[in-house]
Amino acid sequence: MGDNSDLRLENGNMIPTSLSKINTHATAIPSLKGRDVCTDDSVPPIKAQTLDELHSLQKKKSAPTTPMGTPTKAGLLLEQQRQRQQLQSISASLASLTREKGPQVIRGEPGTKTEPLKPLISPRPNISDSALKLTHVLYNLSPAELYEQAIKFEKGSFITSTGALATLSGAKTGRSPKDKRVVREAFSGNDLWWGNGSPNIEMDEQTFLVNRERAVDYLNSLEKVFVNDQFLNWDPEHRIKVRIISARAYHSLFMYNMCIRPTPEELENFGSPDFTIYNAGQFPCNRYTHYMTSSTSIDLNLKRCEMVILGSQYAGEMKKGLFSVMHYLMPKKGVLSLHSGCNMGKEGDVTLFFGLSGTGKTTLSTDHNRYLIGDDEHCWSANGISNIEGGCYAKCIDLSKDKEPDIFNAIKFGTVLENVVFEEHPREVDYSDKSVTENTRASYPIEYISNAKIPCVGPHPRNIILLACDAFGVLPPVSKLTMAQTMYHFISGYTALVAGTEDGIKEPKATFSACFGAAFIMLHPTKYAAMLAEKMKKYGTSAWLVNTGWSGGSYGVGQRMKLSYTRKIIDAIHNGSLLNANYTQTHIFSLQIPDEVEGVPAKILQPENMWSDKNAYMETLQKLAKLFKSNFENFSSYKVGDEKLMEEILAAGPQ
Question: For residue 106, what pLDDT is reported?
Answer without folding.
Answer: 86
